């Protein structure tokens, strides 16, 4: 199950426009301080003219720079996002285009498990690399949630932010110990409709967007139901994942959680018994960035020196589906 | 590179409503016989009340039946489609729900490289299985193109049909030789906009659907440009793939091509020098079913007895991106 795969470099891109909790208080017509208190998010970014592919490409260049690599060192590009730039083709091909690799032949495809897309892509692609298919894979999570928020649903619209994060992974040199130690994912579709955007696909085509149906094309969330299902499942999930990886909770230098919401992060830490030193919480400055949250949090933890080579790290999240997912790795 | 993974069973589902070339001649106001001659498609199916998840679930049950397995023998469900049922969550979770596996925990996610999604999923998931992550994976391609066709673009709208195909893959018993022998994918985003649906994602949100912009939310294709780019690349691509797999053209019992169009199939056979005996062509009865075409063609070839255990088979296609992809396997 172990894979001798190493995180070589990470990068991020944030849209130019920053949106404060105060600004959203005004927009929503709620008392000053309500948005920040309710969401745990002081500021987040919204795109103005940036596209998902542009943000992804900029994060990718930063990740390559951090890894000391050039674009042509990459032999696969995976976009791991919960949102797509356009229906066809996959966003990875559009990122390749932005990177001016249009004749490179570098294979491009998307992996999507909503907020867990990065975790799924890391898990799956580390296996392809361990089997000798690829040498260095660029995984890009790039999300624009701001176009799909329901401003009538105050509880959910205040949580999100736009942005991108990218991670380059490669095979670990023989003399080093970095590796994927274990991974797990569980999907419970009893919660498939607890968080969703019903429209936009083949069931409710954009042509059906009309007065009165707008809400079907924006994000809809039942926070209480998600909380209940997640609470039931997450403790057992993490215990099994860590046991299978022969890693104890206290051996984890850092837990990189999906930045779902302030409440989600408090519950996760509390229920699972992780300390504040372990839990990396960057929610206040970014909001929930869908699949970009976990790689961005990993990036910040590395930048802040909270993770060093040799440290054991848990990436952990929940997503629409409803899914739980995690990867235990040695950085 | 080899993976001891076996196709255990295949299945399909076709919508109840069948649409003939004659019916489309009338709809488009073209002379009788034009649609069939131009597309090579005599009939295809369009959904009436079926959803993508329902079609996928029905195909999945057939594939499990063919494999002699039950739903609970599966430990991963991948939806490998170019279209999604709704924006969030991933279609795989919705298929799990249709299969009444709502509390099973079976991990669900989507892999998308448009028409090559099945080939990509087979490639990637066979590596995860070879690394011991999963025992038996259900890959489902389920496509509804009929809601997203541009009836003003006669050249493209006549090609497509709706439907689903599913394949169960498992580890090969020690006494057998079935395996993935080789795989390759190349993406040339110089062709990223040769076939696309520009709207529906974050760049052109459904809220922007309005009089005059409808075409942005339907499929747009420049057949001549696709033809030119594919022609330049496909011979070298197939030669490299077969050489790396140590398989000669004449050793292939069957070539399972993406059923892109009558012209695409003729060009592929001609340029690559495959015989009519090798090329499996089911286009006339189904049309281009996006990612479902390749697994459906595999299913038909198995059903018709054109592929036996021990035979070497090439899955081969092109997709929006523009990508070329193939897998060489021993059935």
From TrEMBL, chains A, B:
- Beta-ketoacyl-[acyl-carrier-protein] synthase III C-terminal domain location, by residue? 242-331
Where in the numbering of this chain does the Beta-ketoacyl-[acyl-carrier-protein] synthase III N-terminal domain appear?
Answer: 109-188
Q: Does the keyword Transferase apply?
A: yes
Keyword annotations: Acyltransferase, Transferase
Which classification does the entry list for the species?
Bacteria, Bacillati, Bacillota, Bacilli, Bacillales
Looking at its record, which EC class is this enzyme?
A: transferase
Under InterPro entries, the record lists:
ACP_syn_III_C, ACP_syn_III_N, Thiolase-like
**GO MF annotations in UniProt:** 3-oxoacyl-[acyl-carrier-protein] synthase activity
Report the protein name in the record: 3-oxoacyl-ACP synthase
**Is the keyword Transferase in the record?**
yes
UniProt GO BP? fatty acid biosynthetic process; secondary metabolite biosynthetic process
Q: Tell me, what's a Pfam family for it?
A: ACP_syn_III
Domain of life, per the record?
A: Bacteria
Cite the CDD domains for this sequence.
KAS_III (cd00830)
- EC number(s) in its UniProt entry? 2.3.1.41
Gene for this chain: fabH_2
């Amino acid at each position: 199950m172990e894979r001798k795969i190493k995180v070589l470099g990470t990068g991020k891109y944030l849209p130019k426009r920053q949106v404060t909790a105060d600004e959203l208080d005004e927009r929503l017509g709620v008392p000053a301080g309500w948005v920040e208190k309710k969401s745990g998010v002081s500021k987040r970014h919204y795109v103005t003219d940036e596209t998902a592919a542009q943000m992804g490409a900029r994060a990718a260049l930063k990740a390559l720079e951090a890894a000391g690599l050039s674009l042509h060192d990459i032999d696969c590009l995976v976009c791991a996002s919960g949102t797509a730039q356009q229906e066809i083709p996959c966003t990875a091909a559009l990122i390749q285009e932005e990177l001016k690799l249009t004749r490179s032949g570098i294979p491009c495809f998307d992996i999507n498990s909503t907020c867990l897309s990065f975790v799924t892509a890391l898990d799956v692609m580390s296996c392809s690399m361990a089997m000798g298919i690829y040498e260095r894979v660029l995984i890009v999570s790039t999300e624009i949630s701001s176009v799909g928020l329901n401003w009538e649903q105050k509880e959910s619209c205040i949580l999100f932010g736009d942005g991108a994060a990218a991670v380059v992974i490669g095979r670990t040199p023989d003399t080093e110990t970095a590796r994927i130690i274990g991974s797990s994912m569980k999907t419970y579709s009893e919660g498939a409709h607890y968080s969703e955007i019903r429209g936009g696909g083949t069931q409710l085509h954009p042509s059906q967007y009309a007065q009165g149906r707008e809400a079907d094309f924006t994000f809809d969330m039942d926070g209480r139901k998600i909380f209940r299902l997640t609470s039931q499942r997450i403790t057992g999930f993490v215990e099994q994942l860590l046991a299978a990886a022969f890693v104890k909770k206290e051996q984890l230098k850092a837990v990189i959680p999906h930045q779902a919401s302030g409440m989600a992060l408090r519950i996760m830490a509390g229920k699972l018994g992780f300390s504040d030193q372990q839990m990396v919480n960057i929610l206040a400055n970014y909001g929930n960035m869908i699949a970009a949250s976990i790689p961005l949090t990993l990036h910040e933890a590395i930048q802040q020196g909270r993770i060093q080579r040799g440290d054991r790290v848990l990436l952990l999240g929940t997503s629409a589906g409803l899914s739980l997912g995690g990867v235990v790795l040695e950085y």
